[in-house]
Amino acid sequence: MTEQMIKREHYxxxxxxxxxxxxxxxxxxxxxxxxxxDLIFTDKGVKNLEKEIKAVRExxxxxxxxxxxxxxxxxxxxLVKYAKKLKFKQIGVTTxxxxxxxxxxxxxxxxxxxxxxxVTVAGHTEKMHEFHTLAKGSFGQTLEGIKxxxxxxxxxxxxxxxxxxxxxxxxxxxxxxxxxxxxxxxxINIGHILPFNKNIKKSKEIIAKMIDVVPYLIKIQNKYGELxxxxxxxxxxCVFSEEYRYLSFPCLEESPQKIHFSLCKKCQFKKxxxxxxxxxxxxxxxxxxxx
Length: 291
Hints:
This protein has one domain: Aldolase class I (TIM Barrel, Alpha-Beta Barrel), CATH 3.20.20. Helices cover about 30% and strands about 15% of the residues. It has 8 helices and 10 strands. The strands form 2 sheets. It has an 8-stranded parallel beta sheet. The chain has a two-stranded antiparallel sheet with strand order 9-10. The radius of gyration is 19 Å and the shape is globular.
């Protein structure tokens, strides 16, 4: 199975330069699972951000703007344009998609060079999505944003959906995925919510057990895998049965809080896998992980 394991680069390099640039410092959602909820971001200003972007370009040919909600910055267009000037092959943003509900915004940011948009959702209905975002009206705007992106983007621009999996929505995963596939989404990341912020570190009401989610991941891969590119993020190989371990995909942002445990010493994927987040092990233990 080693040759089937999805390979990836180690995006965090030795001198600390990452292609993920945190530019946002406010957000119009209040997601219950947000790993940035406890963090305070200050506006670093365009000049400082341009220096960071330039430093990234020396190491990488792609960049992604993140942090709270980056599209709320009025100068987001200038930052995208600057990245285009530096000839990044891929210029992306990770967003809740709400600003893309405005046609003028969508057109302008695409014209300035954005060619990857990663939109985070937590459901396929207003009730389910807004249970997670705690923001009335957020589902309608995000949905409209997705539709605008699909309509106005060209073939070289990718739309990636981030479906965040929690205890409340994982049993609806097939329905959620089908809903967005029917809209025209071709790339979907399934991300497992981890207990990063202090409000959910001990909450089994929000954090799903990986072993409970995996059967649904396998079902959607078997049913839609030929139509859609899936990445199952934060699910280590040892939570899958052997024939499906190739589906494992560690998070692109490495975390120093991920740990290896006794099982890892015998695992054939130990050099490719960063382990499991310590907070998750504290919450559920190691028993669900098997070789």
